[in-house]
Design goal:
Radius of gyration: 34 Å
Region (Disordered): 1-28
Protein name: 4Fe-4S ferredoxin, iron-sulfur binding domain (FixG-like)
Domain 4Fe-4S ferredoxin-type: 276-304
Shape: elongated
Biased composition (Pro residues): 10-20
Number of helices: 17
GO molecular function, one term: 4 iron, 4 sulfur cluster binding
Structural class: alpha+beta
Strand content: 15-25%
Length: 499
């Protein structure tokens, strides 16, 4: 046995060369040219779901900038507006300032963990149904089918002569594609400008160079990615296919082919009964390749779960349609879990699908905590933000009477719609006093600093420690601004420097 094991690892003798194909002497290329995919139109429940989501999401994207929201005089009335000029983000009743960047961080965490949860539950359903690349590609393919015909007609058109009919269909398709891309680019811009006002500028042929460049950029991206790159964006550009493997488990729903029922594959012969087919060791799969022809990424789901699969379910519709026409039960390709497939393969009853399991609990808890913190932040959001910056040149000044002076820049972000006054007091070195410089506030033992509505007001103040005060090096200093209208105090911590 030891000799047999050792000899089995040796190469065959020269007199009995290992069989090889005639092309084996030519090395396989590292890269293959892209083969255009012609997805066939599918019909079924998953295609209807995809179409409904496509229409709904496109309508939502294009109509949201036109929703109005009354915020009062002098403020934009667009419900969703990312106003970069005034550095404000308006989301219905919520107004975000630059210092609210943590809301953006929270939203990104929610989006990422929500994507993790969706993948753990049902694979790449986000990619298959709601990803913008999928939605716009679906729309472009629909236009292509409408103008050039279904899969076979498009293949014949591309392989046929370049005549007037070919030119007319290609021109019409690309014109419609460009119009869709142009509307997409303009709709994307409307989230950053007042939509009705900018349309008026367009009608007056005064769009502005920055806005025009943005529209052209978004138009080019939409036209290229949805019209030409298509599945290449999903397979090569998007990182998600490489991440999803770490998020799936044996209880995740994925599009699966039941090989225990479908193999071996062979065409269904005329007058062949299913009893005869079963006696020959053949399965339900008649190798019609309908599942391959409808796949938007061009894979064969019968080869198992693959990185390129976007879990759109169109292969399920195609296979169920074929099974119905040949008198076999559907579900040869279906959404199922790996553990259920393994149980069915040995004729064992699978366990019920478990929605609640450790990873889904963890993802849900993370979303709940982050969402709760963001909600609490919105409910308790302050109407003023105070920041203090100490002068660094010079660090301190010794006055003629021996007092030590530090200077500070105080910025008050008044997030209310009314002018506000804030009385400034300090605590730190014994006997320290504060004054406002340059007439920025009323002088006195506790100067009053003003702030105009919905603006950031800047004041320069001087803090002085009297001669003989016990100050040396660096001491903590607190500046307190008390709003005159309601007495609410806001504190800012800094330091007071002395020799």
């Amino acid at each position: 046995m030891q000799n047999l094991a050792r000899s089995s690892s040796l190469p065959p003798p020269p007199s009995a060369p290992a069989p090889s194909s005639p092309a084996s002497s030519t090395p396989a290329p590292f890269y293959a040219s892209h083969q255009k995919i012609y997805p066939k139109a599918a019909r079924g429940r998953f295609r209807r779901i995809k179409s409904a989501l496509m229409v709904g999401l496109l309508a939502l994207f294009m109509l949201l900038p036109w929703l109005r929201w009354d915020r009062g005089a002098g403020l934009p009335n667009q419900a969703i507006l990312f106003d970069l000029d005034s550095q404000r983000f308006y989301l219905f009743a919520l107004e975000l300032w630059p210092q609210h960047i943590y809301y953006l961080t929270g939203a990104m965490i929610l989006a990422a963990v929500g994507l993790f949860l969706a993948t753990a539950l049902a694979g790449r359903v986000w990619c298959g149904y709601t990803c913008p690349q999928t939605v716009w590609t679906d729309l472009y393919v629909k236009v292509e089918e409408w103008i050039e015909g279904d899969r076979g007609a498009r293949i014949r058109l591309d392989n046929g002569p370049r005549n007037a009919g070919w030119l007319a269909k290609k021109t019409a398709k690309h014109v419609v594609w460009l119009l869709i891309a142009l509307v997409t680019g303009a709709s994307a811009l409307f989230y950053f400008v007042d939509a009705p006002g900018y349309v008026a500028d367009l009608l007056r042929f005064q769009p502005g160079p920055v806005a025009t460049g943005w529209i052209l950029f978004m138009t080019a991206c939409t036209y290229a990615m949805a019209g030409f790159m298509r599945e290449q964006m999903c397979v090569y550009v998007c990182p998600w296919p490489r991440i999803q493997a770490a998020l799936l488990d044996d209880e995740s729903l994925t599009v699966t082919y039941q090989d225990w029922r479908g193999d071996g594959r062979a065409p269904l012969r005329k007058e062949q009964s299913w009893a005869e087919r079963s006696a020959e060791g053949l399965g339900d799969c008649i190798d019609c390749k309908a599942c391959v022809q409808v796949c938007p990424t061009g894979i064969d789901i019968r080869d198992g779960l693959q990185m390129d699969c976007i879990s759109c379910g169109l292969c399920i519709d195609a296979c169920d349609d074929v099974m119905g026409r040949i008198g076999r039960p559907g579900g040869l390709i279906r959404y199922d879990t790996q553990s259920a497939q393994e149980a069915k393969a040995v004729a064992r009853k699978p366990e019920p699908y478990r929605l609640v399991r450790p990873r889904t609990i963890i993802y849900s808890l993370v979303m709940l905590v982050v969402g709760g913190m963001m909600t609490l932040g919105v409910l308790l959001e302050p109407t003023v933000d105070v920041s203090v910056l100490r002068d660094r040149a010079p660090l301190y000044v010794t006055l003629s009477n021996g007092a030590i002076q530090n200077s500070y820049t105080v910025k008050i972000s008044n997030m209310t719609r009314a002018p506000q006054g804030y009385r400034l007091t300090v605590s730190g070195p014994r006997g320290a006093t504060v004054t406002a410089a340059g007439g920025g506030g009323a002088d006195g033992p506790a100067p009053v600093l003003g702030a105009e509505p919905d603006t950031v007001q800047t004041h320069r103040v001087h803090v002085r420690a009297p001669a003989g005060a016990a100050v040396a090096g660096s001491m903590p200093l607190t500046l307190t601004l008390t709003r005159l209208s309601d007495g609410v105090a806001h504190h800012a911590e800094t330091v007071f420097l002395a020799p």
